[in-house]
Amino acid sequence: MTDMNPLAWIADAYETHCLTLAKGLTGHELLLRLGADPAETFTPRDDDEANEFLWAAGENYWSWGAARAGEANGWAFVLEPASCWGSIPERLEHAARGTEVIFSSEVGGMGNVGYWQDGTRITGFDTMTPQDRAEQGQAADPDRLVEQMQRAGLFVDPGAPWQRYGGLALLYEVTGLSVSQEQTELALSGKLPALGLGREGRRQGSDGCLASSSRPDAEGGAVGEPSRPQPAGRAKSSPGAGALPES
C-alpha cells in the first residue's frame, strides 16, 4: 500500500511529523489558522536557510515548531517536519471553520489521524488501533471515513510496523493530494506556537503531538510532558518510498 502512496516519503524523511490539509484554503491561510504569526512567515532563499530554520525549531521545541505551507490538488497543506503543534484540537477547530481539515501525525512511534468539518471533530483514531476510533474522544461520526480507511489498508494487520504509513495513506485517499519533498523544502514557512503558547492557552493534551514521551533520541521536557524530538535531518527519499516489507 505504501508503494502507491505519494505521501509515504514524509514518514521516511521525518520520524516526528504532522501533515495538516484544509480544503479550499491557501497554504498561507491554513498556516495562520493554525497559529502562525503573519509577521514571521517567510520563504527560504535556499536549502541552507530552510534547514537552519528547522534546526532552530528543534532547539526551541517548547516554544515553537517549524511549518511549511502550500497548496496542491485544491487543498492547502501545512507540514511540520519535527513537531505536531498543528494537531492541538482548538487549532484544528479554528482551521476547519467553513471548510474541512484532516491531519496525520506521528511522534514516538505513535500515529494519529483526525478529521474536522466546519469546526466540528468528525472522527479520529490511533493508526495502530483504528478499530477503536469511537473511543478516541468526542467525535460526531466516528465511522465517516471507514471506506477510505479500508482502501488505505488501515484494517489490514493493525499494529504492524508498516502502519506508520497508514495515516498518510488515508490523507491521500480522502484528498488526492500529492506533494513532493522538494516542493515542501522551499515552501512558505512559519512558526507554530508550542502547546499553551497559542490562542488556545494551556491544556494537557492534543490529538497527536503529545501522544508519547518514550523516544530514544529525545531530550526531556518539563515534568509530566513528553520529551523533545531532535531536529529532523535533511533525509532524502523519493515520493512513494517505503514499500511494504516482503512476507
How is the secondary structure organized here?
Blueprint: H1 9-13, E1 17-23, H2 27-33, H3 47-59, E2 64-72, E3 75-80, H4 89-95, E4 100-107, E5 110-117, E6 120-126, H5 146-151, H6 166-175, H7 181-185, E7 188-193, E8 218-219, E9 228-229
Walkthrough of the structure:
The chain has 247 residues and is an alpha+beta fold. Helices cover 21% and strands 22% of the residues. The chain has seven helices and nine strands. The strands form two sheets. The protein has a seven-stranded antiparallel sheet with strand order 6-5-4-1-3-2-7, with helices on both faces. The chain has a two-stranded antiparallel ribbon with strand order 8-9. Strand 4 and strand 5 form a beta hairpin. The radius of gyration is 16 Å and the shape is globular. The two termini are 14 Å apart. 48% of the residues are buried. The C terminus is likely disordered.
Order of helices and strands: HEHHEEHEEEHHHEEE
Strand proportion = 15-25%
Count every helix, treating DSSP H or I runs of 4 or more residues as helices: 7
**Separation of the first and last Cα atoms:** 14 Å
Into which percent range does the helicity of residues fall? Answer: 10-25%
Q: Structural class given helices, strands, pairing?
A: alpha+beta
Quick one: biggest sheet?
A: 7 strands, antiparallel
Low-confidence stretches: 211-227, 230-247
Shape: globular
Average residue-wise pLDDT: 84
Radius of gyration: 16 Å
Q: What is the spatial order of strands in the main beta sheet?
A: 6-5-4-1-3-2-7
Count the beta strands: 9
